[in-house]
Amino acid sequence: MDGRANLLNERTLDHYQSSISAGAERVARSIAAAKHPFSGISPDELSSVVGAIDLDTPLGDVQAALDELERVYLRDTVYFHHPRYLAHLNCPVVIPAVVGEAVLSAVNSSLDTWDQSGAGTLIERRLIDWAAQRAGLGPAADGVFTSGGTQSNLQAMLLAREETCHLAARSGDPRLSRAEMLPRLRVLTSQCSHFSIAKSATLLGLAEDATITVACDGSRRMTMEALAAQIARCRSEGLLPMAVVATAGTTDFGSIDPLHDIADLCARERIWMHVDAAYGCGVLASRRHRALLRGVERADSVTMDFHKSFFQPISSSALLVRDRTTLRHATYHADYLNPRSVHEHVPNQVDKSIQTTRRFDALKLWMTLRIIGADAVGELFDEVVERAGDAWRLLDSDPRFEVVTTPQLSTLVFRYVPGPDTNVTQAVTDEANLYARKTLASDGDAVVAATVVDGRHFLKFTLLNPATSLNDIATVLHLVATHAQRYMDRIAGQGQAIGSGRAPAS
Fold first, then answer.
1. Sheet holding 456-462: strands in order across?
2. What is the DSSP letter of 245?
3. What angle (nearest 5°) sits at the alpha carbon of residue 234, between those of residues 252 and 264?
4. Cα–Cα distance measured from residue 478 to residue 462, given in angstroms and rounded to the nearest whole number
5. Other C-beta atoms within 10 Å of 120: how many?
6. What pLDDT is recorded for position 340?
7. Of 255, 257, 262, 334, which has the fewest beta carbons less than 10 angstroms from its beta carbon?
8. How high is the pLDDT of residue 334?
9. What confidence score (pLDDT) does residue 497 get?
10. R_g of the chain, CA atoms, integer Å
């Protein structure tokens, strides 16, 4: 088929519109047909289907390609819109954002420089101002859209590193050349924080032990006593605390660290405070739960993932900073992009970003705000937070389950436990819960996550779908209990010692 006939321009608009319509129709049919969040197909089985596709022989027809796509993708993908998808921080998406996705993909702006985006640059900047205002960061705030929380956290740690080195150099201590500073830099973060913090320290060339994990309380929130003690230890050992990372919505527990107290300590110690609110940022659109993020306005930098709790398609995220001048640490000049001597008044977002080519992901949030508004987004997030509270009460009152902590946001960590009169080891209980999770997925009944708490295997619900009802949750819990108990019964039926920890034959 002629390649030119498939280039989007003024001569191919009929082909563009009919193709997009055909794709949208196929997605709509697939969503309507999805009776389960997942088909249960195994990786091996699907690999043979995908591997059989001859990519060097084009089909030459949109409908034929969509038929094939249904067979290799749509039929066996994971559907986040389904009310019994309860696993990870994946949300159903609002339609205005999908409209924005269609527009930005077709126009294909690149948000690195003005001459590649024009008005897109100003729309992104306006949204950054809006987000910074929601966070309360003040008139000097700024930021940039990113690919996700990991990139935002990496850039925040880059800024913290450079600001710490700059501050130390100004102190005039002759021992602190830059080469000597870098191995001494330390990042303090809770033991429940996201792995991207430690990963960022590695990518930034810090010492192998640069990330110091701070103990949490029973609610999985960073404890101030442990944080203060770790900072004091760093000082006594001649180390340089580079940043304290407070988490506003941990991945496993949805817990929010004590932001005001951490801000007080960071201010006294002159340490960069970063808030990873990739999950909890949805509270900033809430009228009922906004108080959960009190203190975020005192952070030096904040990570926000709109593709989690603002119901945006992946990807749509941002890094915000309280002092726009700190973004200079991400600025590198290239004559063909952002020359110093020419058009210095032209706004180039590449000056703020660690990316160069960058999608116009901000448009999805713009369309969402312009069509349904922030209050509507906040109501959706409020629903899942309150549903999690109802689900916690359901779990807490059911003797078949152990639940780790009361949720602050919309995450529940729990596991099935045998009755008190049953002689079942922890190892078998672990296996039974993992078996229940695997069986739910292979049957296609539900998708739940798993994690490890204090060395034991637990299951996890991450509620980000307002369509998930308490009845859905109760049904999935019943299935978990049924499958887990069936596992234990199979072990007993095969004559194995109930405490052996050996998996039954399949």
1. 401-403, 411-416, 456-462, 449-453
2. E
3. 65
4. 17
5. 21
6. 61
7. 334
8. 85
9. 47
10. 25
Are 276 and 245 spatial neighbours (Cβ–Cβ below 8 Å)? yes
Low-confidence ranges of the chain (pLDDT < 50): 341, 497-506
Report how far apart, in Å, the C-alpha atoms of 127 and of each of 116, 175, 499 are.
19, 43, 57
Determine the pLDDT at residue 342. Answer: 52
* Residue 482 contacts residue 106 (beta carbons within 8 Å): no
Q: The tokens of 48 are what?
A: 């043979």
Spatial contact of 278 and 308, defined as CB atoms under 8 Å apart: yes
User: Which secondary-structure segment (H or E) carries 48?
Assistant: helix 43-51
β 411-416/401-403 pair status: antiparallel
* Residues forming a β-bridge with 416: 401
Give the domains, in start order, of the chain with CATH numbers.
4-79 (1.20.1650.10), 124-335+350-357 (3.40.640.10), 376-493 (3.90.1150.10)
Q: Packing angle between helix 362-371 and helix 119-135, nearest 10 degrees?
A: 70
**CA-CA-CA-CA dihedral for 58, 62, 64, 68, to nearest 10:** 80
459/506 Cα distance (integer angstroms)? 22
Nearest one of 182, 140, 128 to 158, comparing CA atoms: 182
Task: Record the tokens describing residue 213, joined without a space.
Answer: 């994990």
CA dihedral 224, 226, 227, 233 (to 10 degrees): 140
User: b or e along 39-58 (b: 16 or more beta carbons within 10 Å of the residue's beta carbon)?
Assistant: bbeeeeeeeeeeeeeeeeee
Residues in contact with 7: Cβ distance below 8 Å, sequence separation at least 6, in sequence order = none
Q: 451-454 contacts: CB < 8 A, separation 24 or more?
A: 451/252, 451/413, 453/252, 453/404, 453/413
Angle at 332 between CA 330 and CA 338, to 5 degrees: 120
Q: Name the pTM for this structure.
A: 0.94
Short-list 127, 104, 128, CA closest to 116: 104
- Say what the pLDDT of residue 504 is: 42
User: What Cα–Cα distance (Å) separates residue 361 from each residue in 103, 260, 283, 374?
Assistant: 10, 31, 21, 17
Q: How far is residue 433's CA from residue 458's CA, in Å, rounded to a whole number?
A: 7
> How many helical (H) and strand (E) elements, i.e. helices and strands, does the chain have?
15, 11
- Tens of pLDDT, residues 123-150: 999 999 999 999 999 999 999 999 999 9
Q: How many beta carbons lie within 10 A of that of residue 4, not counting itself? A: 9
Q: What is the 3-state secondary structure (H, E, C) of 185-222?
A: EEEEEECCCCCHHHHHHHHCCCCCCCEEEECECCCCCE
**Where does 70-206 have alpha helices with state H?**
95-107, 119-135, 149-170, 178-181, 196-203
Instruction: Single out the residue of 79, 51, 7, 140 nearest to residue 446, CA to CA.
Output: 79
* 148: phi then psi, degrees, rounded to nearest 5: 165, 180
